[in-house]
Specification:
Mg(2+) binds at residue 257. It is built from twelve helices and ten strands. With 346 residues, the chain is α+β, with helices and mostly antiparallel strands. It has two domains: 1-81, no CATH class; 104-341, Bira Bifunctional Protein, Domain 2 (BirA Bifunctional Protein, domain 2, 2-Layer Sandwich), CATH 3.30.930.10. It binds zinc ion. Zinc ion binds at residues 266, 268-269, 273-274, 276-277, 281.
Length: 346
């Protein structure tokens, strides 16, 4: 008797249908709740003869499982039907799409390019993976020159200490671009070379294994140090304000002679002296000088006919001066809280 009832419920359960979530809930209550049909069977189960208990017990379990499965199946079908519905509300407001911001290094690089292009400089970009010949040797860094130690970089291949074209490396400065350009172009040359450069340095707030430079080069007849100074003064005033003063201090670079480092009057205290400028009223922003005649000759330009000047600056340094970013690591950590600070800077 009981077995027949279970069999008929099994059939019933396997063909259950429901039109919506509410009907599904009704089915659940009917079969699976405390007062439902399956629990009611348990009362009859007590009266089953001992030798039948195992068979009947297993059958009741089978019924319960198939009721649970069928009801879950109905729920899933109802959900799928809902998500495939083409009842789309076109009037609902859109999800906001966050607009990115320009990176501070790009903002400052573009500003530098902008200023120099107004003075007739055109853009040239060389390779980041270069050879020893263009990065060092053509620029007067002899193989045993101590200045090489100041620019320790990452070598990809160092197969032959005597053949500099065989040593492949990540460039340590963008001056190599100038060598590439001079090698393949006749003067007059007036180029600006922005880009990423690499150094073998431990990463800290003040040093990183990569940073950005912009270098400039002008080679023509009768180019003088006076021209260089005027171009740099114009740059400093455009970049940091019309009251900015510049100061040139003698320095040394292998590829220029004479060489100088340029300071600008501290743009925080206006030259009065403050913590930022170490109370000197001046901050260093770039290196420059007249291109060494040896470099011109090494690149196939006649140093008896042409002269030239070159300058180079670190973009991170200029960005720090403009926006007070004093930890280099912030530039490459991709922290959007930092990057969003520059939303209104361009
Ligand atoms: Zn100052």
């Amino acid at each position: 008797m009981l077995l027949e009832k279970i069999e008929s419920l099994l059939k019933e359960v396997s063909t259950l249908t429901a039109a919506n979530a509410e009907e599904i809930e009704q089915l659940r209550l009917k079969y699976l709740s405390k007062k439902g049909e399956i629990n009611a069977l348990m009362a009859d189960f007590r009266n089953v003869a001992a030798d039948q208990k195992k068979t009947v017990g297993m059958k009741i379990n089978e019924l319960k499982q198939s009721a649970i499965e069928r009801i879950n199946q109905l729920k899933e079908e109802a959900q799928n039907a809902e998500s495939h519905s083409d009842d789309i509300d076109l009037t609902r407001s859109a999800y906001p799409i966050g607009l990115g911001t320009r990176h501070p290094i790009s903002i400052v690089t573009n500003e530098i390019i902008d200023i120099f292009s107004r003075m007739g400089f055109t853009l040239y970009q060389g390779p980041e993976i270069d050879d020893d010949k263009h990065v060092f040797t053509m620029l007067n860094f002899a193989a045993d020159h101590p200045a090489r130690d100041m620019q320790d970089t990452f070598f990809i291949e160092r197969s032959d200490p005597n053949d500099v074209t065989k040593n492949v490396l990540l460039r340590s400065h963008t001056s190599g671009d100038e060598a590439h350009y001079m090698e393949t172009h006749e003067p007059p040359i007036r180029i600006l070379c922005p880009g990423r450069v690499y150094r073998n340095e431990a990463i800290s707030a003040r040093a990183h294994c990569f940073f950005h430079q912009v270098e400039g080069l002008y080679v023509d007849k009768n180019v003088s140090f006076t021209d260089l100074k005027q171009v740099l003064l114009t740059f400093a005033r455009e970049m940091f304000g019309p009251d900015t003063k510049i100061r040139l201090r003698p320095s040394y670079f292998p590829f220029t002679e004479p060489s100088a480092e340029m300071d600008i009057s501290c743009n925080i205290c206006g030259g009065e002296g403050c913590g930022f400028c170490k109370h000197t009223g001046w901050v260093e922003i770039l290196g420059c000088g007249m291109v060494d005649p040896h470099d011109l000759a090494a690149c196939g330009i006649d140093p008896d006919v042409y002269t030239g000047y070159a300058f180079g600056m670190g973009v991170e340094r200029i960005t720090n001066l403009k926006y007070r970013v004093n930890d280099l690591r912030l530039f490459s950590e991709n922290d959007t809280r930092f990057l969003r600070e520059f939303e209104s800077a361009y």
